[in-house]
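Hey team,

Filing this mostly as a record. A colleague (T.K.) asked me to run one chain through the structure pipeline before their review meeting, and I want the input and output archived in the tracker in case anyone asks later how it was produced. No errors, nothing strange. Just documentation.

Input sequence:
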Amino acid sequence: MPSTFPRLLLDHAQARPEAPALREKVYGIWQTSTWAALAVMVRRLACGLAHAGVQRGEHVVIVGENRPRLYASMLAAQALGAIPVPLYQDAAATEYAFPINNAEVAYAIVEDQEQVDKMIELRPTCPSLRRIWFDDPRGLRNYSEPGLDSVDALVAAGQAHDAANARLFEDEVARCQPGDVAAMFFTSGTTGNPKGVVHTHATLLDRATAGQRFDQLTNREEVLAYMPLAWIGQNIFSYAQWLACGYVVNCPESAATVMIDLKEIGPTYYFAPPRVFEGLLTSVMIRMEDAGRFKRWLFHTFMDVARRVGPTKMDGKPLGLVDTVLYALGNACVYGPLRNTLGFSRVRVAYTAGEAIGPDLFIFYRSIGINLKQLYGSTETAVFVCLQPDHEVKADTVGVPIDGVEIQVAANGEILVRSPGLLKGYYKNAKATAEVLTADGWYHTGDAGFLDATGHLKIIDRAKDVGRLLPAAGAAEGAMFAPKYVENKLKFFPFIKEAVAFGDRREKVCAFVNIDFEAVGNWAERRNLPYAGYTDLAAKKEVLALVKDCVEKVNADLAADAMLAGSQISRFLVLHKELDADDGELTRTRKVRRGYIGEKYQPLVDALYGGKTEQFIETAVKFEDGRSGSVSATLPIVDAKTFPSAATLGRAA
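Output structure:
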């Protein structure tokens, strides 16, 4: 197999020139680019970048939604030996400053006017940024910024430069080696500045092909690319594996049309974080609650059948005659139409990763015939570390180590990984690299977990976040506290969108909760409960009772776990605003920045632990249009019931 991304492109263009490579929906119509046409586009872009002065080893920032010409721009940069650096398109301009200055970026290729405006805003603080090219010219006709031009102009310049330097493209591609740096991904760390994770062609393609072999992927797969390219999960599925397998990547028209586009494409290979699957299920349940009585009865009756026998069927185990007939009826009346409504009628393999997924949510999808599985990996491991084999899928594990991966569990419970897909290092950060990579090639994941008796990996929490409560009277040490584990259990409920748990070196666990505005709003409307907006809805006593019920169910579940029974939530409050990446409370991959939130909302934390029944808070917020404002409210604080641990009850018996 060719060993670099540009060579893979040229191989597909030669072997299958008229086969579709990329599709993009424009004005409601799907436009197809063949491998041959893509190769021509990449050649011209590469020659255009060379004409503009891009040198081997330099960094080229790529910002925007999934667009064919942005994919082609990444390939063009790699063809010259330059290094594409995808950044999150929804980030504020100030969030780009560190990556651009850290990587001394001189060139940026962006999607549209919004991203151009951010780059122009950054120029005073990012003096290295000389050239900016945009894909979509809408709104940019009257811009006269120095160094600003369209991708069309870059292509035209590249065509002329190619004509004058006939062997330039082939020679540059030939110089590319597997060990050369192929891309850099900036982690959206929960503390401090992001780190640039450096990957080579070899590391990315090794993991892409390992995943290909594991799930027997072919060039006939259809993939919908709608998550940010800056997230390595999307980058692996819609870029590295796309070029390794030669399948078709489909780019939605916009974020607003993803659901429609999903149904039109009917992907066979699908990847999304749990929040996407949660959102899809929430929309289904809302629609069912609004349906007529017979439809609701039909849905719930056959979903009971699906939950009972569906996972068994998905695991390839035999069913009895009655269950076989009932499931077939359910498939005709409910499961098949539901898969079609969700856009999953053709899905052969679907993966979720990034956060834990609720067992009920996981079982729901598998029970209706969707082969949803979990995987484990990170930016530093090029994603693929553990995958769940077909017929060996568990809700509480993330799979088995795949080809080339070794796993060790350190004495403190931290998971160590050795794999051909490990990062080359952190850019300009030898200290951070030395902290995570040992001399003999082991990577410290920072995650705590263990391998079960069947060889499946189970993740508990981030190792640094696992703490202890203050010891009870007479105890040598306090109970274990795993905040992310607790938060994920809360988020398994459709009414809870985010949660932040506190408890390390404290006498009890307390939590902040964000409700899911859509799900709780629908719940309130069906009960004729009026509300004026998120802040008003979150403060309703009925909503607090709803959340309290979820919290106490989590506590009852935790009580059955001898190790984590002490992590039960004693008190909680529902925040007056949604946690937001623009306000610094979440990373761009929607991970909670627990330390920052604890400092920002210190009065609320003090009120939870100080025994107060309510607390006033006023918070500065940033709106989508760039304006600033504030939201204030007096938040009720709720006491939740906790339960004796199973271990305690066992000793008493």
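Quick notes for T.K.: The CA atoms of residues 71 and 588 lie 21 Å apart. The chain has a mean pLDDT of 92.
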